[in-house]
Amino acid sequence: MQKQFDDLLEDKFNIKFNDESLLDEAMTQASYVNEHPGQGLKFYERLEFLGDAVYQLVVSDYIFRRFPELPQGRLTRLRAAMVNEHSFSRFARECHFDKYIRLGKGEEKANARQRDSLLCDIFESFIGAVYLDQGMATVKHFCEIVIFPKLDEGWFDEFFDHKTELQEVVQEDGPVDLDYELVSEDGPDNDRKFKVAVKINGKEMGVGLGHSKKDAEQKAAKKALNELGVSTSIK
Amino acid sequence: MQKQFDDLLEDKFNIKFNDESLLDEAMTQASYVNEHPGQGLKFYERLEFLGDAVYQLVVSDYIFRRFPELPQGRLTRLRAAMVNEHSFSRFARECHFDKYIRLGKGEEKANARQRDSLLCDIFESFIGAVYLDQGMATVKHFCEIVIFPKLDEGWFDEFFDHKTELQEVVQEDGPVDLDYELVSEDGPDNDRKFKVAVKINGKEMGVGLGHSKKDAEQKAAKKALNELGVSTSIK
């Protein structure tokens, strides 16, 4: 099992731990330690604390340099979209971390292995372990493979608040009328579709389709941002 | 003015910027840029965004390594005490940053130079500028001079939640009775003094004196932690 994980990390991310016990710590839940007393095992929580700060900086540094014209408010919103429990759990699954978590029997039975909150913690503790064992450059390299390409693939779109973004952009030079109008709503109850138009000072700037009004509004706002030539970081 | 600031940074912190324009950016408020159009000036907000993440990591890394036995919850509370608007503004004043901020005339009149929230922003933007210009090692060195010694001097005590700390510590092995009792309250209205005792399962473990009940409770909790031999990170 351990050997498989080592191979995966080396093949996929070119990461080879010097201190394997750090990797073990990152992948071990307290429930497992409690069931194996006297072995000096450690669980992931301290590494999660550290990894959280490491990841925040790697993401901040990346978007700061990649989008040199993006003002603070928009950088902050973009970071919030990328530093997100749901994103983390998806990354953890994509990297197959779920297979290698060490859990106590009760937690295993309760299917904790597939719990988003646990996968999120493990993703951060893994980052913390890589940072301690290999340094910042390796964390950056890992993020360049796993995280940053997702920005261009639209992964973070659903966490990105295009409406707030649009409001900030259009009001830069003073107040404007920004309205969202429901154009149509149809389809059966279990597959309802909403069409929303966004208007700036009465002029339609984008139309969005979605399974909820909120979703359609976000998509309309995104279209308007594109229309306005605003280089959103999210495609 | 600029020269004075350069000398101060070099003398006190051994920091000499390669790119002076980054330091200018860190110390410049938007109001100043607005009053000097066409000069290509930048204001501090993007650097503040970056500096915030840099500082979080430097502090996290430091306390993670310094307190190898501290569990995640207590690390998180200690970090929260150290990453705090009020602390930041005190650091900024101690480093004399207030003298070197570039403000617009209106903001100068409104005495923004002494506003805690601005000093807090400037402290973070300065950290961001040092990180970009000099790298992480110089930020760490700066924190070793300015921030970390404060931990032992008790600077962060007032932001530290000893009551939560005590509750967590005493309940590690199961539920206990933890009570705070007001022992006395005296003195004139403008200089009222409160004395509070904390009892664990009925046994007095610490007494605290303060100008408010809350303050006295915090101090009692801190005494109890010492009494229990808990190595609080704050002296």
UniProtKB/TrEMBL annotation, chains A, B:
Pfam families: dsrm (PF00035), Ribonucleas_3_3 (PF14622). Its EC number is 3.1.26.3. GO terms for molecular function: double-stranded RNA binding; identical protein binding; metal ion binding; ribonuclease III activity; rRNA binding. It is found in: Cytoplasm. SMART domains: DSRM (SM00358), RIBOc (SM00535). The active site is at D52, E124. Residues 161-230 form the DRBM domain. One of its GO terms (cellular component) is cytoplasm. GO terms for biological process: mRNA processing; regulation of gene expression; rRNA processing; tRNA processing. Its main location: cytoplasm. Signal peptide: none annotated. Homodimer. Digests double-stranded RNA. Involved in the processing of primary rRNA transcript to yield the immediate precursors to the large and small rRNAs (23S and 16S). Processes some mRNAs, and tRNAs when they are encoded in the rRNA operon. Processes pre-crRNA and tracrRNA of type II CRISPR loci if present in the organism. NCBIfam families: RNaseIII (TIGR02191). Belongs to the ribonuclease III family. This is Ribonuclease 3. The lineage of its organism: Bacteria, Bacillati, Bacillota, Bacilli, Lactobacillales. The gene is rnc.
